[in-house]
Design a protein that fits this description.
Blueprint: H1 3-10, E1 14-15, E2 22-23, E3 37-40, E4 44-50, H2 54-59, E5 75-80, E6 86-94, E7 99-104, H3 105-117, E8 125-128, E9 133-139, H4 143-147, E10 161-164, E11 167-175, E12 178-186, H5 187-200, E13 202-203, H6 206-215, H7 252-260, E14 266-273, E15 283-286, E16 289-302, E17 308-315, H8 316-321, E18 324-326, E19 335-337
Helix pairs in contact: 1-5
Length: 345
């Protein structure tokens, strides 16, 4: 267990040994989120890329523009197979000498090894930075006021980034009508500020933070869904994860073809399921064509009521023409809701 997770465990949190997610004692928020909440995101890993060629190297591997990424901004980016299927989805940002890629801890090792294969003669070094930094998710209408103790200027636009002696603060897309932020701090700083944060804000489980990602409509590629989706299938280009004007990268021709040739027939939607266990990678079935799956669960977490909320990739026609069931044509029915952004007509 790395130093940050060990510190949390020593402070009373329960750490999932499989993915690093944290749980806390006490009742889980019900109905609505607290006015200010904080969640340790120990399920996320960090790849640090350094060296003079690192922007060019990553620019040639990822779906978004890395060469022109400013220090005041974070961006989403995908890493695809030659067939255009997502192996990973990243949040990326840079400091003066380092570019960081954030992704689920469970797939970091394999993704990092694959990227390393293509460094070749480039002056770029990839390192696991998970032991050096802690990642915190903070949200709620009162979160900005708390953060001003460490960041005099709190970002106001999605994916804007502010640096201070306390680390990097990134504004993320809102969820449940409230702002969200991610604070990346050196482990020693995180250990120092955690007691104050835990007094000023409500500590919540990592799974609840993942629920806010779902309601923000931001997908995360995990082990069960690697190589399942072209970026547009999970709305990645709609939330700024794909730059169609940059140069080539693995799978670029297929991603571009999906964008410009014909109408998108598959999309990611927000849905709720009652009375069922829901996991990423589970298939969904349409009542109008029950013999074969029409889509797949991307992410899923228990919601603030009694069910499970999930992001589901599926044929658009299936959602429009009949009921969609989880697991089989006889499984629980998905109830669809609006995403926080519009899908193209």
């Amino acid at each position: 267990m790395n130093p940050w997770l060990q510190f949390l465990a020593d402070s009373g949190a329960r750490i999932n040994p499989d993915d690093g997610a944290a749980e806390f004692d006490g009742p889980r928020p019900a109905g609505q989120l607290p006015r200010a909440y904080v969640s340790p995101l120990g399920d996320l890993g960090l790849i640090a890329i350094t060296g003079e060629d690192s922007p060019t190297f990553l620019h040639n591997q990822l779906t978004n523009d890395v060469e022109h990424l400013p220090a005041s901004e974070a961006r989403l980016a995908g890493y695809c197979t030659p067939k255009g299927r997502l192996l990973a989805s990243f949040l990326m940002w840079r400091t003066e000498a380092t570019i960081f890629l954030e992704l689920p801890r469970q797939i970091q090792t394999t993704v990092q090894k694959r990227l390393q294969m293509f460094v070749l003669r480039s002056k770029a070094r990839l390192n696991d930075a998970g032991d050096q930094y802690a990642v915190l998710g903070l949200g709620g209408e009162a979160a900005a006021e708390v953060l001003k103790q460490w960041f005099p200027s709190v970002p106001t636009q999605a994916f804007a980034k502010q640096d201070s002696a306390s680390g990097s603060l990134i504004r993320l897309p809102d969820a449940f009508g409230s702002p969200r932020y991610q604070w990346i701090a050196a482990t020693a700083i995180a250990q120092q500020v955690w007691p104050e944060l835990a007094k000023s804000m409500t500590p919540v489980d990592t799974s609840l933070w993942r629920l806010t990602d779902i309601h923000a409509g931001v997908p995360q590629i995990t082990q069960p869904t690697q190589e399942q989706f072209v970026p547009q299938m999970v709305n990645f280009e709609l939330i700024g994860g794909v730059n169609f004007k940059k140069g080539c990268y693995p799978g670029q021709e297929i991603v571009a073809r999906s964008q410009y040739l014909g109408k998108q027939k598959r999309r990611m939607l927000l849905a709720t399921v009652e009375g069922a266990e829901v996991r990423p990678g589970m298939e969904v079935f349409s009542s109008t064509d029950p013999g074969q799956p029409c889509g797949m669960v991307v992410n899923a977490e228990r919601n603030l009521q009694s069910g499970v909320d999930c992001l589901v990739e599926l044929k658009i026609a299936a959602a429009e023409e009949g009921a969609v069931h989880l697991g089989s044509a006889q499984g629980p029915v998905l109830a669809f809701a609006k995403l926080p952004y519009a899908l193209p007509a």
